[in-house]
Amino acid sequence: MIPWLPRQHVFPPLETALADPNGLLAAGGDLASERILAAYRQGIFPWYSAGEPILWWSPDPRMVLIPEQFKISRSLSRTLRHANYEIRLDSAFDKVIHFCATTPRSGQSGTWITEDMRQAYLQLHGLGYGHSVETWREGELVGGLYGLAIGGAFFGESMFSLRTDASKIALAHLCAHLKRLGFGIIDCQMETRHLASLGAQTITRRDFASRLEVLCAQGPAPGRWDADAARDCFRSAA
User: Fold this and answer.
1) 14-45 confidence digits (pLDDT tens)
2) Would you give the distance in Å from CA 9 to the centre of its chain?
3) Which domains, from first to last, does the chain contain?
């Protein structure tokens, strides 16, 4: 059994999370901004399907990506330097969430990005915590990602791609942008082979929580990201 959350933004200890399914910690509560931020600062995130109660997770191990360790393949490097694309930050946060929820994915049916989740993260975007990195071509949004920035930690939520490498382009620019800002970690939540190929690694839940305790207490204040900050940072090397 897992506990049902009280009205207060209090979560059970991380070590009480289930081993199967990996990381299931608690149920219930709400998606108020204060509760979500409290959860992420402790290494907890909401993930559930429509018709289910809100489920809160903290898996062990945790997959993370250090911005400086992002692996850029030769083909992606050429694309970053020469492709006809534009990077924008926070210009279409709502559209990025929409495409993340509706773009078909191999082996998946449906989406965990419910309407309540969408509204919750739109509110966090309005508060300066939610951010999107967007890949545009010829005025069309073709890929991107979104997540939360708390102090010096970025919590990746989802990404989508409508053109080849469009989401990888966004991730490369995210890493470059976070590196300039002094961020120490990108939370990727669950382990996947694809993320590992890009330089992500697994660490223990205890290590992850310890890093968050430091990183979430430092770094930039919440606010909209500078639209020019991640633009053309790779093409100068052409």
Assistant:
1) 999 999 999 999 999 999 999 999 999 999 99
2) 21
3) 4-59 (3.30.70.3550), 63-237 (3.40.630.70)
